[in-house]
Amino acid sequence: METIYYELTTLSSLIVSPRTSLAFYKDLDQFSLKDVEGHSDCVKTEKLKVIYPFYQYGLYESYSPDTADYYLPGSSIKGALCQETANPVKLMVDDVPIPREYIILRNIQKAQYLEEPQKAFFDVFFDHVAVEMVKADSPLEGSFNYHNIEAARELLKSANNAAKAKIGQMREYLSCLIKKEYPAQLKERLTKAADKLAEQLNDDQVLLLGGYKGLLHSMELKESPGEMAGAVYLDKETNLPHGLIKMELKERP
Prior knowledge:
This protein is of the alpha+beta class.
């Protein structure tokens, strides 16, 4: 086994949260709106009642972004690298520390009522809930143990091919939506997303990681994406779906 080093850059905001086991609630006095000020990029902060945190070492009784020790689990990196492998891969991945300044708190934004063109719009989804995420363009470094650097390059290539297949089907779905009679503001947002996704199809280092990517970025489908409905969540900053990252393997430091 050889230690493989890499650089990871978030191309859009990254959501990786232990949602089923941990959340902070305003009604339980686990945070106040004053706690959120200065740490929030929420659209509707005044309605906030629940905060889902990014992964943190340790247990916290209240929301405390100034002291939290954030990390990206190695299991999440492994999932991004091994999603298309049929057999178990002997891959040991270290957690990646996340500097606090890379963490932002936001509402999730989603295209809504897509099945009803005259009512469709793009806005905050569940305005009483906010999620901590790693902001776009955050540089991170990590390592994993694998057979050798050549095998690691092949693993990255396979993961990249899988990611681009899902990006392609998401772009196809957006192209179908753009043809519908949606309000101009929504069509503009969808068009920007489709154009930016097209750029990622030329990147041999792009991967998909984390949650809120939408169904068409979570699995590769056999039927035409244009024939089904799928959620469209977009990062408000980049107009890309959440969880697009770029991974570059590096020589030993």
